[in-house]
Amino acid sequence: MLEIMAEGFIPAGWLGSDDRGQGANKQPHGLSQDELVETVLELWQQGLISFLAGHDITECETISTEEIRNALAEKFRPGKSRTYVCLTSEGGRVWEAFAAPRWDEYISELWGPDESLGQDVTELICANLELLQRYLKFNYPSLSQIDPSRVWWDILEPWEVTNWKTLPKAHRVRFVDPDDGVKMISLSPQFISRPRWYRWD
């Protein structure tokens, strides 16, 4: 369960959906609905996860079994309030203990609208500049043909990787991809990593 939430905020409804977490690009948790509700409540009581709700994404100070069940049953409706779940700092420490992440190999890859440009951009962030450059060369071969004025490099100091993890420094590149197809992931606190950057102990 912690694995499903490790990389950022996820809609609570993803946990309760039929794909059992695959919507978050994770292995399914394999729990029945009652087992899921019980497990989520236990994780929250242990201080390993947080619930956030409403348009302002406010942390829930209290939550009941029925509220958890309703949150897990939520369907995505643009513009409507949704409930999110995420790891707390303690939950992150527990996850790191068994996942043994290599944060210098973590690549954040996001797509979405940039208000200043009025169009979609691709954004990649990684603490390891060499790895980021190799990943760009392999996955975005047309990048070298993009007008340099449409590619922006900068350094983030520090880099808030997730709500519970911060690294001292990372390299970021943003660009308008001329070969960009229809992207299914919006610019949000959701991450996709290549290559695999953690292992199971």
Summarize this structure briefly.
The chain is α+β, with helices and mostly antiparallel strands and 201 residues long. The protein has six helices and ten strands; from the N terminus they run αβααββαβαββαββββ. It has two domains: 98 residues, Arc Repressor Mutant, subunit A (Orthogonal Bundle), CATH 1.10.10; 73 residues, no CATH class.
Q: Structural class, please?
A: alpha+beta
Strand order of the largest sheet: 1-4-2-3
What Rg do the Cα atoms give?
18 Å
**Quaternary arrangement of the chains shown?**
single chain
Shape assignment: globular
Measured as a percent range, the helix fraction is 25-40%
Number of helices: 6
The CATH topology name of the largest domain reads Arc Repressor Mutant, subunit A
Quickly give the CATH architecture of the largest domain.
Orthogonal Bundle
Largest sheet: 4 strands, antiparallel
Q: How many strand elements? A: 10
- How would you spell out the order of helices and strands? HEHHEEHEHEEHEEEE
Overview of the molecule:
- This protein is an alpha+beta fold and 201 residues long.
- The protein has six helices and ten strands; from the N terminus they run αβααββαβαββαββββ.
- The strands form three sheets. A four-stranded antiparallel beta sheet has the order 1-4-2-3.
- The longest helix is centred in the first third of the chain and has 13 residues, at 33-45.
